[in-house]
Each structure stands twice: as structure tokens, then as C-alpha cells.
Amino acid sequence: MPDLETKHDYVAYLAARPQYYTRVSAPFGNVDRQDNTPSDNKVTNAGANLGRILFYDVRLSANNSLACASCHGQQHGFTDPNTFSDGFDGGKTGRHSMSLTNATYYENGRFFWDERARTLEEQVLMPIQDQVEMGMNLFDLEVKLAQTSFYGPLFTEVFGDEAITSDRISRALAQFIRTMVSYESKFDQAFVAGEWDEPNFSAVFTEQEMLGLQLFTGFPGRESQSLGCIACHQTTAFSMDQAHVNGLDGTNAEDQGSGNGFFKSPSLRNIEVGAPYMHDGRLATLMDVVEFYNSGIQRHRILSPDLTRDGRVGGAPVRMNLSQQEKEALVAFLETLTDEKFLVNPIFSDPFAQGTTLSEPPSSSEPPASAGTVSSE
Ligand code: HEC
Ligand code: HEC
Q1: Rounded to the nearest whole angstrom, what is the distance from the C-alpha of residue 98 to the centroid of ligand 1?
Q2: Where is the composition biased (Low complexity) (predicted)?
Q3: Gap from CA of 244 to ligand 2 centroid (Å)
Q4: Is 252 within 8 Å of 258 (Cβ atoms)?
């Protein structure tokens, strides 16, 4: 049984998003224009509370072995430290799991590294049915959840009656994921120290972090020093508008993402705890990522103009020639996006953590579960 007593106030958490997230004239651009929440599935407290239980419930997998959270762990910004994740039946996923931090901010609203899901509502049903990931079919899942006593009342609370349909499962899961917004990192402290439209970075950042900020964004007033990272990783959510070609591989590499080398990147919020990096997890550390952009960008027929020497699509890859000091500064800046509060916030935590995850009694050899030390992973 999950903890059914605690009801979290997700609507209040989202309403508390700072003004530089929500105001049109925010200094790094308005985050709300990136928001992919559809008008017919807005976040409600009942919906997100149900979504949280579904997200952590191993019943969503064919053999009750894996939950969504098994590959999307809160302490990792909702990604997986394994390069490829273990599926329900011992298989491995074909790509690295993606951080779900700020998933609501992705302008064209498509999901997966290759954008193959058109919406989040469509995406959340795909891992359930994936033959490697959870191996379940939706009809069996509807029956299984209908036979689980606590779900009926929860669905009634959200949808008005206790019918359990895959459409409703998808809506609740999507609502919960859209509450995973991060706005309490060191980076955010600069806005607290200044004004929402005039952040005071020097009040909270070290000199090294200041240099990293300038290299990443050109802010404040240092456009000429900018490496242009912010052109693709946009706004204070550091999320994208659409997929881009960043030259991780050449034109002939096997995995070309959504076609022609286009890949999505998740928000860079909480990137420090989301290693390894890129769609196949090939880069182990943030320094490896910085070294890739510094010296390793591959020629690609349609490499983004933001990463070519002459600013033309498919031109020769830029070589940044960064000093060791500049590379370390970029890493230090990326680490200011770590949101310690988000990573332990109870509103995102495992509701099954205090007990057993299924109705069977725990085996007697198991040590007693104490709150906070047990996780579903
Ligand atoms: C076995 C591991 C595994 C499980 C279980 C799993 N995922 Fe994932 N998830 C992944 C991997 C790997 C990717 C990237 C796959 C790709 O892009 O091809 C991913 C991608 C995603 C994305 C895309 C994020 C983005 O920004 O585009 C979302 C959303 C997501 N998963 C949600 C879920 C939900 C909800 C569940 C449970 C119903 C779930 N996942 C279960 C491994 C897993
Ligand atoms: C042309 C657009 C573009 C620019 C400019 C760009 N990136 Fe990226 N970035 C991407 C794409 C696309 C991915 C995902 C690529 C993949 O996995 O195949 C990515 C991935 C990343 C990741 C890993 C994300 C993850 O979850 O694994 C980091 C970190 C990152 N970029 C940092 C930077 C930094 C630092 C700069 C500036 C030096 C930069 N990016 C410039 C497009 C860009």
C-alpha cells in the first residue's frame, strides 16, 4: 500500500514559480512560452497525487519488478546513473534514460531523444508497453489496477468515477511529471539577491561561476565572450525549443535521432546529478561534455550554425580553444543549476517507501523497513 494520507499541494508549488520563470520580459526569455501543458490536462492536486502513485508503482510492469522511478530516480533529477537502464526482464534500453526535470518546458512538446512521441500524454504510455522496459499491455494494466483496492477511489477523486482507462492513467502520469519544475538552485539565488528582472549574480556566484555564466550565456553584457550554449539550452529553464544537431557524431553515424542527427536535450537543470551524458550516455562527466564542445564537435552535413566556424549550416565545426580555467568555469556554472531541495522534496518522493510495494506480506528474512531508507530502486 502506498501512503494515501499525505496529499501534496502541487498547484501551490507551481504557483510559487518565480517571476523570471513566468514574466514575458524575463532576462533570459520567458519560460512559459516553452510550456507544453495542454489546455485539457492542466495540473490538479488530485491528478498529480494519483500520478505520483502510478509513477512509483511496480504494477505498471508485467512482472511487478519495475516502476517508472526505477529508471527515473529523484536524487538523479529523474534520470538513471546507468548508461543503459535495466528493463523488467533483464534487457537493456537502447539509449540513456532522460532527466524529467522541467520536462514541461520543451516548446514543441515532443518527447524522447528522437522526439518520437508527439505529446507527454502519448509518451507516458510507451514505456509501459515497451518490450524491454515494462512489457505490459494496456488492457491487462487496466484490469490489474481495477483489482487493486486503493485505485478506484483515487480515480474517482480525479475523474468523477472509478473507471480505470489508459487515457486516465496517461493524464495523471503526465500531470505529475509536469510538476517536476526546478527553481531553487544556487542560480536562482541570484534572482532572490537582485530583482526578478535584474538578477545579482555577483552576490551569490564565485568568480569562477561568474566566468562560466558569461561563457554559457554572455550575461551580463558579455555577448562577445559567449560560446552560445544558451542559443540551444534556452531561458532560465535551460530547455530547448526543438531538437538540434550538435555534432556529437558525423553524418554517417548509426543513430541519427529524429533523422539527420537531430536530438532533443532535456533541461540542464540538475545536470550535475544526471551523469552519464548525451543520448547514449557516452560522456561520463561534465568535463567530458565541455571537452566535447571545446574540441570534439564532428563534421555533420547539417551541423547547427550555432556550432560552426562560419555560422553556416553544415560548416566546419567550431574549435573553442578554451583554457583549463575556462573549462572548469563552465563546469562550475553548470553545477549551480543543482537544486538540492528539488532532489529531496517530499512532493516528488516515493509514496510506497515506508512499506511493501505489493499486498503480499514481506518475507521474514527481510530487515524491517524504516522510513526514508527504503527506496524503490
Ligand atoms: C527500463 C527503464 C525505464 C523505465 C521503466 C521507464 N523509462 Fe522513461 N525513459 C527511459 C529511457 C531509456 C528513455 C529515453 C529513450 C529514448 O529516447 O529512446 C526514457 C525517456 C522518458 C521520457 C522522455 C523525456 C523527454 O524529455 O523527452 C519520459 C517523459 C519518460 N521516460 C517517462 C517515463 C514514465 C512515465 C515511465 C513509467 C510509465 C517510464 N518513463 C519508465 C527509461 C525508462
Ligand atoms: C546547436 C545547439 C546546441 C548548442 C549551441 C549547445 N548544445 Fe548542448 N546539447 C545539444 C543537443 C542536441 C544535445 C543532446 C545531443 C545528444 O544526446 O545526441 C545537447 C546535450 C548537452 C548536454 C547533456 C544533456 C544530457 O542530459 O545528457 C550538456 C551538459 C550540454 N549539452 C551542454 C552544453 C554546453 C556547455 C554548450 C556550450 C558550450 C552547449 N551545450 C551548446 C544542443 C546544443
Answers
A1: 6
A2: 359-371
A3: 9
A4: no
Q: Residues with Cβ within 6 A of ligand 1?
A: 60, 66, 68, 70-72, 85, 87, 93, 95, 97-98, 100, 103, 111-114, 120, 123-124, 127-128, 133-134, 173, 177, 264, 266
| Three-class DSSP labels, 241-274 | CCCECCCCCCCCCCCCECCCCEECCCCCCCHHHC
- Looking at CATH, the fold of the domain delimited by 186-335 is given as Cytochrome Bc1 Complex; Chain D, domain 2 (1.10.760)
**Cα 146 to ligand 1 centre (Å):** 24
The per-residue pLDDT string of the chain (377 residues; one tens digit each, 9 = 90 and over) reads 999 999 999 999 999 998 888 877 788 888 888 999 999 999 999 999 999 999 999 999 999 999 999 999 999 999 999 999 999 999 999 999 999 999 999 999 999 999 999 999 999 999 999 999 999 999 999 999 999 999 999 999 999 999 999 999 999 999 999 999 999 999 999 998 888 888 999 999 999 999 999 999 998 777 778 999 999 999 999 999 999 999 999 999 999 999 999 999 999 999 999 999 999 999 999 999 999 999 999 999 999 999 999 999 999 999 999 999 999 999 999 999 999 999 999 999 999 997 544 544 444 444 444 433 334 43
3-state secondary structure of 126: helix
72 is in an annotated binding site: yes
Taking CA atoms only, the protein residue closest to ligand 2 atom 40 is 229
Query: What residue ranges do the domains of the chain occupy?
Result: 10-182+341-348, 186-335
- β-sheet bridge partners, residue 111: 117
Specify the pTM. 0.94
Same fold, 10-182+341-348 and 186-335: yes
Cα angle for residues 99, 249, 254 (degrees, 5° grid): 90
Q: Is 123 helix (H, G, I), strand (E, B) or coil?
A: helix
CATH node for 10-182+341-348:
1.10.760.10
**Residues ≥6 apart with Cβ < 8 Å to 304:** 232, 244, 245, 246, 247, 313
